[in-house]
Design brief:
The chain is mostly beta strands. The chain is built from one helix and five strands; from the N terminus they run ββαβββ. Helix content is 8%, strand content 30%.
């Protein structure tokens, strides 16, 4: 099942929700910390493992730091 990342617009708490795509279309997400329904889905990058190293689908790095690959060294 895919995991969707969210941030609460009220308390700024970041959290993840695991659900099927069909559940995502119908389910109203609420913040687990403050219970607010005002949440925003965050952009996420797909990554895969090749020989024990994680690489982003965006090529060199995921854009959130200056590293060219993620995961254990």
């Amino acid at each position: 099942m895919p995991t969707y990342d969210y941030v609460c617009k009220k308390c700024r708490h970041k959290f993840a929700v695991t659900m099927t795509i069909s559940q995502h279309d119908r389910k109203r997400i609420s913040c687990p910390k403050c219970k607010s329904k005002k949440v925003k889905k965050l952009m996420s990058a797909f990554s895969h493992s090749s020989e024990g190293k994680f690489t982003s689908s965006q090529g060199s790095g995921c854009g959130t730091c200056s590293a060219t690959s993620c995961g254990p060294s």
